[in-house]
Amino acid sequence: MAEGPPTYARRVATTDGKWAYELAGELLRCSLPRRWSHTLGVAACARTLAPLVGEKALVLEAAAVLHDIGYAPPLVRTGFHPLDGARYLRGVRAADTQVVRLVANHSYALLEAEERGLRDELADEFPLLDDPLLVDALVYCDMTTTPDGCRMTSQERLSEITSRYGEDSVVGRFIRQAAPHIHASVDRVRAAAADAGVGL
């Protein structure tokens, strides 16, 4: 399969994060409009957490915008969207390594990678970022946003995912395994936001 339109590969990361919206929009807006709506909702959530993550706010927002680009048909290689998306981003000139690693590992992707026989590849190529708050923040944004970009609880989100994919699917098995970790991440973000006086 071809790598995709050359304009994607030439996309340059800028300090304002505009590049991330342009790239994700080109990949998702037309081909996967509901996924694009979810993406915009996750990004909006990330912006609310900007006071909490401080100087990493643009990193979080860029990762939020880009976290699902691996679903875009031109990027699919393994069928595991965190890995496909991160591998593609790695080839985007000047893309921040932190953003790439957040995309690769978002929402406990390593646990799903294990279900798919891709754990070693993911862990070796994209080690988990050593920034627990930033990692938790992306989990929070992804797992409290509906497929249409609205807010919901993490409990509702996991139920929705399980209903959509089926309990016995790879994703369903992953969700059962990851659920305690996802809820814990959400709780940590809520607690940190409360301590910092950040409204969610």
From TrEMBL:
Residues of the HD/PDEase domain: 31-110
Pfam short name (any one): HD
| Alphabetized SMART domains for the sequence | HDc
> What superkingdom heads the lineage?
Bacteria
Q: What is this protein called?
A: HD/PDEase domain-containing protein
Question: Which species is listed as the source?
Answer: Streptomyces mashuensis
Q: What is the lineage of its organism?
A: Bacteria, Bacillati, Actinomycetota, Actinomycetes, Kitasatosporales
